[in-house]
Amino acid sequence: MTADMLIFFIFVLSIFLGFELISKVPSMLHTPLMSGTNAIHGIILLGGMLVLASAEGFIQHVAGFIAVVLGSANVFGGFMVTDRMLQMFKRKK
Amino acid sequence: MNMITALIFLIASVLFIVGIKLLASPKTARQGNLVAGLGMVIALLAVLPLMQGPHGTGVSLWKWFLIFAGIVIGLIVGAAGAYRVKMTSMPQMVALFNGAGGGAAALVAAIEFAHVTQTASTMFVVSMLSAAMIGAVSLSGSIIAFYKLEGHFDKPVTYPAQQVLNGVLFVLSVLLAIAMVAGSHSMVLMVLFLVLALALGVLMVLPIGGADMPVVISLLNSFTGLAVAADGFAINNIAMVIAGTLVGSSGTLLTLAMCKAMNRPVTNVLFSAFGKVNGASADAVAATGSVRPVQADEAAMLLSVASRVVIVPGYGLAVAQAQHQVRQLADELAQHGVEVSYAIHPVAGRMPGHMNVLLAEADVPYDQLIEMDEINPEMDRVDVCLIIGANDVVNPAAREDKSSPIYGMPIIEAEKAGTVIVMKRSMGKGFAGIENALFLRDNCRMLFGDAKASLQELVTLVKAG
């Protein structure tokens, strides 16, 4: 099996895993969950860093730099805003 | 990728999975977010040794500086957004962060495309193009969703042949993609492709009503996840594939769950402008009866002599930022021996869970919040139902009027309470833009005015009485 095929296997299995993970979620957690998963796709920052490192020429540098800024905002802002939302659920009696 | 990096990516992936799992339960949600965040930090550190300059050279100092500066700028912007945004605007903020992720995914794909060689495998190019397209759609769609939630478009934007135009744009994008996969690795085509995708994102979201934006944001969130996964394929980064796919699939399920809470199929949300149905049914909803205004002193009396009061909060409460006043009123009423609870509709406010978050901010005890399905059977034993800035979620048309656009949506059956007091700024319509027959019922009293000021007045009156 080639490496590409292996990644494809992982892709398909991850789809099913994602479905299983949140099969039962109370509606009050819909938004925090959306926000939390939003932060997780901020892993695109890794992609931004990798392509900026290998960028050639002015345009690629600019595009890569913007990608890093956007990815960083996604990941850090995402986790922080989710934490702020969930902080408000803290007090239970 | 060496063994250690691979293992660290594996640990990060496990942390993401555990994080999402914990996020899905109220007790552990906050830890879940932190666990996922820890996974992200680990993944970010693990990628550092993988970084390479052009053609396998080392990364220059200038590049390191650029990367570091970019991360810091993003961190500052993200933190400022996350901590300075008002409670009521959090969904918009999520939309913007999601758009940022989508934009980053599209740019990464575009840059990678510039490095494509004629020997690149088809799967490699296809995944890159998917990432570029989905990411760009997510970027522009999220920005429109942001503006809609900010209230910049009052009505869904509709025009003739909307679906046809979207279809044509989509076919054009696919044709461009085929050309690029076939071997035309021109950046001009790529830029054109991105522009088409951006336009598609705008046109997809424009016709959808503001009330459905949380669903749209959730859908675009899962789009971005898929774009990130596709980028992961293209640059051969397994952590991105796993994290992106998890978000894509869990986000899809979440989108469906949100639609279910509104009792509408997802296709209905995406492809039928809410406003269109509305015009046709306006006559049918024309209810009879008259509005009965009430003054604060009478309302205060009704409340303080009741034995059971249910408060139905809505978006108006969030706008007025009157959650602390609600808490005070509930406390005062409890002093008078009134049993107070809050009825929470799953889609009250602008995001599911909005009311829980809002009331939690005012330290309202958790066990006083009752979900719609639990409160409805008890509603006819409630003396006073106090509706604060909620409208569509208590509209009896959802149960009684088949021609109503919200027909079939589960509602809080406020009309069954002995007396209904509705606090509202004016007779304006709710988010769905339809009349509310509840306001014309015999047992309904309208207390007009700003929710915060009215509540303050009620608190004073109940205290004095």
**What level of helicity do the residues of chain B show?**
55-70%
Q: If you compute it from the alpha carbons, what radius of gyration of chain B comes out, rounded to the nearest whole angstrom?
A: 26 Å
Characterize the main sheet of chain A.
Answer: none
- Sequence of secondary-structure elements of chain A: HHHH
Topology, pairings included?
The complex is a heterodimer of chains A (about 90) and B (about 475).
Chain A lengths: L2 H19 L8 H11 L3 H10 L3 H31 L6
Helix pairs in contact in A: 2-4, 3-4
Chain B lengths: L2 H21 L5 H19 L13 H24 L5 H25 L7 H28 L12 H20 L5 H19 L7 H22 L3 H24 L4 H6 L2 H12 L10 H10 L2 E6 L1 H6 L2 H13 L3 E6 L9 H8 L7 E3 H4 L8 E5 L8 H4 L18 E6 L19 E5 L2 H14 L1
Parallel strand pairs in B: 1-2, 1-4, 2-3, 4-5, 5-6
Helix pairs in contact in B: 1-2, 1-9, 4-5, 4-7, 4-8, 5-6, 5-7, 5-8, 6-7, 8-9, 12-18, 14-18
Describe this structure as you would to a colleague.
- The complex is a heterodimer of chains A (93) and B (465).
- Chain A is 76% helix and 0% strand.
- With 93 residues, chain A is mostly helical.
- Chain A has a domain at 26-87.
- In chain A, helix 2 packs antiparallel against helix 4 (57-87).
- The model of chain A has no long low-confidence stretch (mean pLDDT 89).
- In chain B, helix 1 runs antiparallel to helix 2, helix 4 runs antiparallel to helix 7 and helix 14 (323-335) packs parallel to helix 18.
- A 6-stranded parallel beta sheet of chain B has the order 3-2-1-4-5-6.
- Chain B folds into 3 domains: 1-50; 92-272, no CATH class; 284-464, 3-Layer(aba) Sandwich (Rossmann fold).
- Helix content of chain B is 60%, strand content 7%.
- Chain B is built from 18 helices and 6 strands.
- The model of chain B is unreliable at 274-287 (pLDDT under 50).
- Chain B has 465 residues and is of the alpha/beta class.
- Chain B has helices spanning 3-23, 29-47, 61-84, 90-114, 122-149, 162-181, 187-205, 213-234, 238-261, 266-271, 274-285, 296-305, 315-320, 323-335, 354-361, 372-375, 397-400, 451-464; strands at 308-313, 339-344, 369-371, 384-388, 419-424, 444-448.
- The interface between A and B is large, with 80 and 119 residues.
